[in-house]
Amino acid sequence: MDCKWKISEISCDGEVITHAKYHVIASEDEFQVETKGNWYFDAPKLKIPFKDVTEDMLVSWIENDAMNNGASIIKSRLQEQINQLSKRKVAVPPWLPQKFKIKEQ
Predict the structure, then answer these.
(1) Per residue in 19-78, pLDDT tens?
(2) Which residues have C-beta within 8 Å of that of residue 75, sequence separation ≥ 6?
(3) pTM for the whole structure
(4) Is 93 a member of any domain?
(5) By residue range, what is the domain housing residue 18?
(6) Could you give the CA distance from residue 72 to residue 89 in angstroms, rounded to a whole number?
(7) Residue 33's closest CA among 72, 76, 78?
């Protein structure tokens, strides 16, 4: 599963980042799912100057914080959704034009 992250907003207490708003698009084969969320850091720390923080660093911090029993809760949920999509049976909704086949004689 390939995940593309985007951090759209952060909140700070001084120069310490306390919150990040994220958007993740996960794809596997022809399936794609996405999620948005807010991550509040339990123990905000800044080990490098604020001006040197990158989006990739923030993504890494969220992924590390989101680990539960060795698995990312965010990525696990996205993988569950992709797995469900791969099992679905697509049907044409009744309010849309229905497909039909002509019987050959």
Answers:
(1) 999 999 999 999 999 999 999 988 776 778 888 999 999 999 999 999 999 999 999 999
(2) 1, 3, 26, 63, 66
(3) 0.79
(4) no
(5) 2-82
(6) 28
(7) 78
